[in-house]
Every structure is written in C-alpha cells, then in structure tokens.
Amino acid sequence: MNWEIIGFIGAACTTFCFIPQLYKAYKTKKLEDFAYPYLAVLAVGILGWLIYGLSISDRVVISANALTLLFVLTLIGMKYHYNGKI
Asked: How does residue 4 score in pLDDT terms, banded at 50, 70 and 90?
C-alpha cells in the first residue's frame, strides 16, 4: 500500500474543506461565528505542521499546510475586514 497516496487524500480533504466556508463567508460577509482565538490557535497549529513538513522535506505536509494556512489567514483577514475589531 502506498501510504503517501493515503496521506495526500487526507491532506486534500482537510485542506479543501475550507473552500466552502471561504465562499460562504465571501458571499454573506458574516464571520461572527468564527472566534479570533479559535482562528489564531488554528493558524499557529497549522504553522507548526508547516514547519515540521519543511524540517522533514515532506511535500504533502508542506503543500497541504501552506494552503490551509493561507485559507485560515484569509478567513482572519475577512473577519477583520467585514466585522471590524479584534
């Protein structure tokens, strides 16, 4: 069994699950349900995974977490833009 393919499938699922939420947030401009502490801790956790992926040179871990971090930072930016104060 090729474990890298399974890892890629898992990474794709957990990464791309943010796309519907980003789309909904963009269309409704309502992000009140996202707490800043949640988004901040999530971003730090993803950054940790990204650093880990870089340290072991794992393309799947690096690409999935770089993209997920971009999605989370986009949500943080949208929340600040649409809802104001932190």
From this structure: confident
The region, left, alpha or beta by phi > 0 then psi within -120 to 50, assigned to residue 2 is: beta
> What is the rounded CA–CA span in Å between residue 84 and residue 86?
7
CA distances for 7 relative to 32, 51, 56, 70, angstroms? 33, 17, 15, 20
C-alpha to C-alpha distance for 4 and 10, rounded to whole angstroms: 10
Q: Which domains does the chain have, with CATH numbers?
A: 3-83 (1.20.1280.290)
Spatial distance between the Cα atoms of 65 and 80, rounded to a whole number of angstroms: 22
